[in-house]
Design brief:
Layout (H helix, E strand, L loop, with lengths): L2 E4 L2 E4 L10 H5 L2 E9 L2 E3 L1 H14 L8 H14 L5 E8 L17 E8 L4 H6 L1 E7 L14 H12 L4 E6 L2 E5 L3 E6 L2 E4 L10 H13 L3 E3 L4 H5 L3 E6 L3 E8 L2 E2 L7 H17 L5
Parallel strand pairs: 7-8, 7-14, 11-12
Antiparallel strand pairs: 1-2, 1-6, 3-4, 3-5, 5-6, 8-9, 10-11, 10-13, 13-14, 14-15
Helix pairs in contact: 6-8
Bound molecules: pyridoxal-5'-phosphate.
Protein name: D-alanine aminotransferase
Cofactor: pyridoxal 5'-phosphate
GO molecular function: D-alanine-2-oxoglutarate aminotransferase activity; pyridoxal phosphate binding
Length: 285
């Protein structure tokens, strides 16, 4: 039996139902998080939970659970499903109400659901590197909110994936923003660069861990936007997310990055990231 979390209760997935007038379903009026599980333990849970409540606040959505209570329920869910290496998907919407654009009455409670899934670490892609396609970023101007509205991201990912690429790297005009479901980084002369945490990107939790480990490894890390030309002449490129960790990019469209192999700085960051996982979730392999 697969156990899921729906509005305060753990239940069999077969019993979980969503109302057709849930505002998440009709409008994408909600927010979400994806938390990594390694060796049965969550990684950077606090940071994900804080971002979840911050996203909710930014769209004026009240989550009907205290953070500690929700964290405890998620840990119970992971245990109930005996997740080893996987993820927790957590979502909150503005609840169920007759369809109208403005917010429902304040007595309508937000819906909160969560489920778990085994997701192996993508080791061979992390070893060999992946390819990406450059796509114009046509999303809205509040990409800092982890909103359920992902059409801009989905269309970009689909276009890239249908041509055999792992990810789409997005750009607004000449400036690179982020991936369709990841943050984007370039390395030139030993310096790592990524877009600053503005409204134009999601401030990834993985991005923050990378900034942190770069600091302890003595790798210069700059949060300033870079151009397409700079990306295309980078020594190394990588993307990062909760599920992909530090993922080397070896080809952009038809063009090789450097020599077409994961670079030394990327490798160093992958190693340091792994160490951080082992510190936080000691039974992870
Ligand atoms: C658009 C976007 N940017 C960045 C990220 C990376 O965020 P995190 O490292 O918190 O998973 C994601 C993750 O899903 C994303 O969807």
């Amino acid at each position: 039996m697969e156990t899921v979390f729906v509005n305060g209760e753990l239940m069999d997935r077969k019993e979980a139902k969503v109302d057709i007038e849930d505002r998440g379903y009709q409008f994408g009026d909600g927010i979400y998080e994806v938390v990594r599980v390694y060796g049965g333990k969550t990684f950077t849970m606090k940071e994900h939970m804080e971002r979840f409540y911050q996203s909710a606040e930014k769209i004026k959505l009240h989550i009907p659970h205290e953070m500690d209570e929700l964290t405890g329920l998620i840990n119970r869910l992971i245990e109930a499903n005996s997740i080893h290496d996987g993820i927790v998907y957590l979502q909150a919407t503005r609840g169920v109400a007759s369809r109208q654009h403005h917010f429902p009455a304040s007595d309508v409670k937000g819906s909160v659901v969560a489920y778990t899934k085994e997701v192996p670490v993508p080791q061979s892609q992390m070893d060999q590197g992946v390819t990406v396609k450059l796509i114009e970023d046509v999303r809205w101007l509040r990409c800092d909110i982890k909103s359920l509205n992902l059409l801009g991201n989905l269309l970009a990912k689909e276009e890239a994936a249908s041509e055999g690429h792992f990810e789409a790297i997005l750009h607004r005009g000449d400036l690179v923003t982020e991936g369709s479901s990841s943050n984007a980084f370039m390395v030139k002369d030993g310096v790592v660069r990524t877009h600053p945490a503005t409204n134009l990107i999601l401030n990834g939790i993985t991005r923050r861990v990378i900034r942190d480990v770069a600091g302890s490894e003595g790798i210069p890390f700059q949060e300033d936007a870079f151009t397409l030309d700079e990306l295309l002449s980078a020594d190394e490129v990588f993307i990062a997310s909760t599920t992909s960790e530090v993922m080397p990019v070896v080809k952009i469209g038809e063009r090789l990055v450097g020599e077409g192999h994961p670079g030394a700085v990327t490798r160093k960051l992958q190693g340091a990231f792994r160490k951080r996982i082992e510190q936080e979730a000691p039974v992870a392999h």
